[in-house]
Amino acid sequence: MKQFVLVICLIAIFFVYPSQTNAISMPCCLTLEPVDKSLTNAKGVALIYKVQLNPPSFARTNVSILAVHLPEPSSYGAYDSYEGFAFIPDEISWRFKLYPTPEEISPTWAGRFDLITAEMKNVKVQVRLSNSKTEKLGPSILTNNIKYCK
User: Fold this and answer.
1) SS (H, E, C) the chain
2) Tell me: the pLDDT tens digits for 76-131?
């Protein structure tokens, strides 16, 4: 009888406390680090959280990015701006414009995207060069993986 009760308790624990998933807990922040280590002052942060949009609907995931001390986009060639870029490899990606603040020297670049419905698992977040006229996306300047989100 004791063994039967023990087995029932173990089964109950298994169903009450399911195994952890690889999904992150939100809200969280992710530090974006430079791909080129010579850009010692370039950094960014991504805030990732659930947002309830109007009109009321199911919650979506928001990714907001703020990046500082980035080089002039034109120093890399035919680029004139930066974009936020988040993606799940071989599945889906989201890109959104980052806007510069009015500082004359080294503006802060910021932007957000509110419409993510996918599970935020194995997501990479980046700040990438962009050509606003041709809509060509360039290489990543800042990057990190969502598994480091805290």
Assistant:
1) CHHHHHHHHHHHHHHHCCCCCCCCCCCEEEEEEECCCCCCCCEEEEEEEEECCCCCCCCEEEEEEEEECCCCHHHHCCCCEEEEEEEECCCEEEEEEEEECCCCCCCCEEEEEEEECCCCCCCEEEEEEEECCCCEEEEEEEEEEHHHCC
2) 999 999 999 999 999 999 999 999 999 888 999 999 999 888 888 899 999 999 99
Structural domains present in the chain: 22-148 (2.60.40)
Whether the full predicted model's pTM is greater than 0.90, yes or no, is no
